[in-house]
Amino acid sequence: MNKSFFVVLFMLNSQFFFGQTRDDYDQVKESIIIAYNSGEYDSIFNSYSAEMQGALSLEKTEAFFKNLKSSVGNIIESEFLTFNPPYTIYATEFGGAAFMFSLALSENKEITGLKFTPYGKETNLAEADTMLDLPFEGEWYVVWGGDTKKDNYHVEHPAQTGAFDFLVINDDLKTHDGDGSFNEQYYAFGKEILAPAAGEVVMVVDGIYDNIPGKINPDFMTGNTIVIKLKDGEFLWLAHLKKHSIKVKEGDRVGEGQFLGLCGNSGNSTEPHLHMHVQDELKINQAKGLKNHFRRLKVKRKYIENYSPVRGDLIEKI
Q1: What is the C-alpha separation between 264 and 186, in angstroms, rounded?
Q2: What is the rounded CA–CA span in Å between residue 262 and residue 189?
Q3: Are 127 and 293 in contact (CB under 8 A)?
Q4: Can you tell me the distance from the alpha carbon of 32 to that of 43, in angstroms, rounded to the nearest whole number?
Q5: Distance between CA atoms of residues 81 and 64, nearest Å
Q6: What integer pLDDT is reported at residue 122 of this predicted model?
Q7: Looking at the predicted structure, is the pLDDT value of residue 159 above 70?
Q8: How many CA atoms lie within 13 A of 98 on its CB side?
Q9: Is the pLDDT of residue 15 over 90?
Q10: Is the dihedral of CA 186, 302, 80, 135 positive or negative?
Q11: What percent of the chain has pLDDT over 90?
């Protein structure tokens, strides 16, 4: 099989527009599936933005999709996974393979990006020795977590393969009040973040502004960050914290449960949430991620021990 389409068909830089809805993305996704399965690849091309048409010709589009179909067949099923602006991601089953299908749209609902990434294989991560406690009080939602690409897009990044993204939702599964255009409307924003285990603070980044929801800051991907050395070969990262909320400094010893800072929306973050992972060395571009377990917690309001949360779990500190 030609591996090229495993990574990407094409992506342009996109903006997030609050006027778009999930229904808009679902409608375009369904039209792509119908056109793909029927071999009408020109219909997909005609749905591109002008910029994307200029960068990716009809000939290249047809060649890509013909190669894809000859290798893995028609699309059987496509299930919504998450909206991660400016992309919406779908778990998509072909006749001979499974992919995460990422779709990006312009303000006019024209296609500005298509990406197909295989999922389903477990990462077989090495496990961290240190047992953790949850880094917050109250009930939080695991938006990304687990060992497969379907459950955790982080597995594509070597240092973050065991990472979690946590946020807070209400009974209607919403992450915010109002239209979500201000950080203060999000339930996670400003929540206290606690040390999941004892250790030494070896890196602190503060002063990164909190993003307007829906936009990201690519200049420092983790935003306001705390890194705690738990032991040799185990470095715990807490990322996207609120600007100027961090209350520890490099060299500090922290105890489990100690207040560290507040949940924010800094760095590569489209809405307030907490990113957490453990890696085997300090430098993120050289490290390998480790799988971590929590000593005790409630999962979907039931008590459990020695557990590593997965996407979709509601979790709470005990």
Answers
A1: 10
A2: 8
A3: yes
A4: 8
A5: 24
A6: 55
A7: yes
A8: 12
A9: no
A10: positive
A11: 63
E strands, 51-173, in order: 75-84, 87-94, 98-105, 111-118, 139-144, 164-167
User: How far from the centroid of its chain's Cα atoms is residue 93's Cα?
Assistant: 20
Question: In this predicted model, what pLDDT tens digit does every residue of 61-98 receive, in sequence order?
Answer: 999 999 889 888 999 999 887 766 567 888 888 988 88
Q: Which residue has the tokens 């999922």?
A: 119
**Mind listing the domains of the chain with CATH numbers?**
3-118 (3.10.450.590), 139-317 (2.70.70.10)
Is the Cβ–Cβ distance between 101 and 116 less than 8 Å?
A: yes
Q: 3-state class of 91 per DSSP?
A: strand
> How long is the chain?
318
For residue 33, the model assigns a pLDDT of 95
Whether 307 and 294 have beta carbons less than 8 Å apart is answered as yes
Q: Is 115 helix (H, G, I), strand (E, B) or coil?
A: strand
Is 203 strand, coil or helix?
A: strand
Structure tokens at 12: 């342009």
Are 153 and 127 in contact by the 8 Å Cβ rule? The answer is: no
- Burial of 110: CB neighbours in 10 Å, binned 0-12, 13-18, 19+: middle
Residues 6 or more apart in contact with residue 285 via CB below 8 angstroms = 159
CA 26 to chain centre: 19
Whether the Cβ atoms of residue 201 and residue 252 lie closer than 8 Å to each other: yes
Q: In the predicted model, is pLDDT for residue 199 greater than 80? A: yes
| Residue 69 DSSP label | H
- Grade residue 243 by pLDDT with cuts at 50, 70 and 90: very high
